[in-house]
TrEMBL record, chains A, B:
Gene3D superfamilies membership: Tetracycline Repressor, domain 2
DNA-binding region: 49-68
Pfam families (alphabetical): TetR_N
Example GO molecular function: DNA-binding transcription factor activity
Natural source organism: Leifsonia soli
Full protein name: AcrR family transcriptional regulator
InterPro entries, sorted: Homeodomain-like_sf, HTH-type_TetR-like_transc_reg, HTH_TetR
Alphabetical keyword list: DNA-binding
Amino acid sequence: MDSTTLSDGVASGVAEDIPAESARRQRTRARLLDAAFDVFAEQGVRAASVETIAEAAGFTRGAFYSNFSSKEELFFALMEREKTMRLEQLNTGVAQFLAPLVGPDGAGLDDDDVLQTITHILELQSDDRRWWLVQAEFQLMALRDHTIAADYLRYHDEFFSDLTEIVVAALDSARRRFTIDPEEAVRVIAELCASGEARAVLAGDERTFTERLSESVPAILLALTERV
Amino acid sequence: MDSTTLSDGVASGVAEDIPAESARRQRTRARLLDAAFDVFAEQGVRAASVETIAEAAGFTRGAFYSNFSSKEELFFALMEREKTMRLEQLNTGVAQFLAPLVGPDGAGLDDDDVLQTITHILELQSDDRRWWLVQAEFQLMALRDHTIAADYLRYHDEFFSDLTEIVVAALDSARRRFTIDPEEAVRVIAELCASGEARAVLAGDERTFTERLSESVPAILLALTERV
């Protein structure tokens, strides 16, 4: 599998100068990804069959296999799409809520500014209970299947590497920096979000992702950073 | 299911004044728990059948059901046993490595003392890659099955509540305290351990639990605490 190709295809979307055939192919892939996400969330990743996914997207099994070699390859394309979407949401949030508060020579934000800015940025993030559940299931499959473990780890690590870059740059513009290894700090905060989602599902907690995260993420981000 | 009974049974072990029948029952339960852990780790929690577990323990299906009403009830007994064992290991570590460094009127430890003490305490913990994998699988089952979600959450929350109490007392004796909500801090550190286990399995990292944790846990514990 070629992650560069997947990445380019997903990230650039359907540009105007792409031939009709490619545009149609992109739409087919997008419909398969949407349908697969629904089927994974409803039936579980392991239980979902290629037939069910193809049918939910309104395609034949043959159409599935002309786009993806397996359910696993489709899952990696889904991870790539989610990654791109989430990082874009984060970049948009930083540009919209943090950038106006900090000039090139601006002073650091006070803690209240930081808390409020993080909450605003989190509000832009998609509610990801379904994504979290599906990814957790796929991770467990990868843990027991070494043929997908390396690809899974690579996608996962790329995500955290890109995420850390954005967070560190945002902190820098707010005149803050992590007091521990930045990527470890970002992973810790992401794990906190993930375990919060798990508890919410188990407890039947109906609050949104953002409401829950606004209680925990800003406090730990402040605790793990210091003013420069 | 009565968690108090399970807890008492597991925590107190086989006391000398327990009648022979009860002692035999405890041994049967212990063998079933040991066998179930092996089968869960090897085949996965969902795939493991009551028949396979009973057979691996050298018992009949009937003997299984005279001790546990279901695979899920056995899993909760396993969680209880693991919880008791891990908290005891932690208490032992604190008594052995932290207590001698801090008197009732002792001064705070410096950061190097803290780092070294935590590493020593971690060395007493069982390597828990198998346990982590099995528990992650059970959690995903609970996420999709509301009949076990509440019990799972209760066991999980009890563990973190007990764990937080021990950690806060240990920090207090070392003249430190968390700068964020203590239970949240403990959960964050535990999640860091769990995600470290996942990455190690995916990456084929052969280092022990303690070796990996010694790189990350002390730093974050220091970052999330302050001297009193």
